[in-house]
């Protein structure tokens, strides 16, 4: 796993053993403090604005009920340089923070690790 400031990334060991960069396939969790009047929809919009030098294709957005209230799920394909990715992101707003749980993988790895990634994403829990 890789731990950055406010971000946790998990990449399969077999890919790391092959020398693949962690960005080839990962599940990540991001946390950031927000003001009480910030809407979850604006969080998602701002998150998309922060994607640099990346083309986004076919984004789809829907809401889902969770134990933390309503969440927003976004799926899309992206191209960054010569790499093509598939992405699933779920956004939560809870007690003054927003959380983003993501599965991002190069197209060639997406289906291979999809079930494992979704199982990991479903275990997301906010420690109180």
Overview in brief:
Helix content is 24%, strand content 48%. With 128 residues, the chain is an alpha+beta fold.
What's the topology here?
Layout: E1 2-4, E2 7-10, H1 13-17, E3 25-33, H2 40-49, E4 55-66, E5 69-80, E6 83-94, E7 97-106, H3 107-122
Antiparallel strand pairs: 1-2, 2-3, 3-7, 4-5, 5-6, 6-7
Give short descriptive properties of this protein.
128 residues, alpha+beta, 7-stranded antiparallel beta sheet, 24% helix, 48% strand, globular, disordered N terminus
Order of helices and strands: EEHEHEEEEH
Shape: globular
Structural class: alpha+beta
Count of strand segments = 7
Q: Main β-sheet, in a few words?
A: 7 strands, antiparallel
What is the count of DSSP helices, taking H or I runs of 4+ residues? 3
Provide mean pLDDT, rounded.
83
Describe the protein in words:
A hairpin with a 2-residue loop joins β6 (83-94) and β7. Strands 1-2-3-7-6-5-4 form a seven-stranded antiparallel sheet. The chain has helices at 13-17, 40-49, 107-122, and strands at residues 2-4, 7-10, 25-33, 55-66, 69-80, 83-94, 97-106. It is 24% helix and 48% strand. The two termini are 23 Å apart. The chain is of the alpha+beta class and 128 residues long.
